[in-house]
Design goal:
423 residues, 5-stranded mixed sheet, globular, 17% strand, 17 helices
Length: 423
Amino acid sequence: MARDSALRFGAQTDEVMSLLRVVNLVRTGEADTRPEIGRLTGLGRGVVAQRVDAAIEMGFLEDGEYGPSSGGRAPRTLRFRADQGRIVICALGALHIRVGLASLDGTVLAEAHCAWDIGRGPAETIDTALGMIDELLAAGEERPVWAVAVGVPGPVDFETGSPVAPPIMPGWNGFDVRRRFEQRFDAPVWVDNDVNLLALTERSHRRDDNVDLIYCKVGSGIGAGLVSHGRIHRGANGAAGDIGHVRVRDSTAVCRCGKVGCLEAEASGWAIMRDAERALAEGATGILAGLVERGEPITPEAVAIAAQDGDALAISLVQRSARLIGESIAALVNMFNPGVIVVGGAVSSAGEIFLAEVRQRVYELSLPLATRDLSIVRSIGDEREPLRGGAELAIEELFDVTFPRWFADGRPTIEGIKGPAAA
């Protein structure tokens, strides 16, 4: 019966699009009763009833409790069946793997994390990630995997799902990340830059569907995610926002990408660690020196904490990083004119010591019109943020981009996602 209904709708464009809109109105919370659907779509009561019945029959919606009455009989509410499938998220960082499972409304249900060097290569890294995901799936309720989102710390060709010349990912250039996950889960897979996942999370925190936002991550590397009118801007080849490799004036520092003078070689977490170790070797004293004496490692997080605790060396390193990053962000502000800039990553955990310098450089170097309504804030810093961003990516691709291609099957398939849109 559901199959017949799906095929019937699939043959008629108007019916297809109105059915999809009904499902999405309920899914996003814009409407939760049949009268509200009719008001928002302009469809007659009988047509709304047909579309809702079809959506329930196909498994997308279900009846809920009765809502408040406006004078007549109380309307029955509708719910999107967010628990019918799972989204798998794999967020790879330079020094860690984080995996998670989410429901179809983006709620993160389970997660796992381990320290990991991305330089160990794609085969070993993905094997480890898949093992972690298998453990999460085995421990939870059995549900089919509807989609997989993977974040990697480097530029990505979004169409192919392959990293493109990633500076800190030896062996990953052109590697088909998507294929391994498709083979394991038999579900559509999307691969994106890790900073774009964080930008999607920040977008979800704001009610403005057309937000213009820059997310700047300052960790072991430096990157920016650009959200334009509510959509991620990836550029022609996936390189948009890769500010870590813009040139810093008069710099002679060699970057991990092999070039000289990159912003990352002067202001990233690994550059700060390098400069801190050099200063300590030359006799600098203070909190960071105490860490070395106790045999503890100098990390970007350690430098940020030391700066907050008043260590002079740490403060100088953090402020220099912030000034250089602020100059690059200012160029983006002049070109992109965002409404909000969110700064995250290990180095930014120094808080106002870091953020104040970024603000000063951005406001000093940007056009007054571009900064008139601009806010510059720190990210929440929740470790689940990349997982939430991965879920946002999968949900957007499933229900905003590819829904017409696979809805008749009742759940997404690799062939349905890649096939032509419904006529």
